[in-house]
Amino acid sequence: MFGLAFAMGTPAGGPTAGGGQSALMNLVPLIFMFAIFYFLLIRPQQKKAKEHRALLDSLKKGDQVVTAGGLHGKVTAIDENIVTLEIATGVNVKINKGFIASLKKD
Known about the structure:
Helix content is 42%, strand content 26%. The protein has helices at residues 2-7, 19-57; strands spanning 64-67, 72-78, 82-88, 91-96, 100-103. The chain has a 5-stranded antiparallel sheet, covered by helices on one side. The mean pLDDT is 86.
């Protein structure tokens, strides 16, 4: 019975004989999947982050902005990482600069 099991092993010209080509063919789908992830997920995220950094760098006093939490207000002061927004007449709030989501279009 054990002789039959050994006889059913891989043939002499089977997948293990040409190991170099087989290993390369196994890598092709992985490379293809990485390329898909790069172009569909990673690259758009990097582009969006770059645009957000440019928005934060161009921020100036008097801009109308919308925060990530949904607050609408006017920039009254900008420190290094803190922005002061006037959300109503005489009502100022301080938020982290990174939480500004977009400029408000008038």
